[in-house]
Design brief:
The protein is α+β, with helices and mostly antiparallel strands. It is 26% helix and 32% strand. Helix 2 packs across helix 3. The longest helix has 19 residues.
Length: 133
């Protein structure tokens, strides 16, 4: 029986907002995508999130599908909805697709899960675990 490979990526300083313009910031969440009627706001948010995540995935080996992706989201606040942070799955999977993983369909990614962890640091962090099933 072949041993499952597990890949762990830890982002120690994860921004929780991106600069939209000189005077405006957009917080990283599904709400930002749903609430903005203008496509340039949504595009800017997604592109900036990809710039954040890509450097952490460079050293990742090619993945043998199917995989499961689990995120531990570290934050010192408790007044937020964890489901808004699931936007990171979309970004991670889009970055992996065609680069480290052939596709991001359910044939290749069988499950995603997220866990909220309260910590004392002032900046958010994220641990991504990708398990080859």
């Amino acid at each position: 029986m072949e041993k499952k490979r597990t890949h762990k990526i830890f982002i120690h300083e994860l921004p929780n907002k991106v600069q939209q313009s000189k005077r405006k910031v957009t917080y990283i969440s599904w709400n930002a995508l749903f609430s903005s009627p203008h496509h340039t706001v949504r595009t800017k948010l997604v592109n900036e999130m990809k710039k954040i995540i890509e450097p952490y995935l460079v050293s990742l080996a090619l993945l043998n599908p199917p995989v499961a992706i689990h995120i531990k989201y570290y934050c010192n606040r408790t007044a937020y909805d964890i489901d808004n942070k699931t936007i990171w799955f979309k970004i991670i999977m889009d970055v992996l697709k065609g680069w480290k993983l052939e596709d991001d369909s359910v044939k290749f990614v069988k499950s995603v899960s997220i866990e909220a962890i309260v910590h004392k640091k002032k900046i958010d962090a994220m641990e991504i675990t990708i398990t080859e099933l």
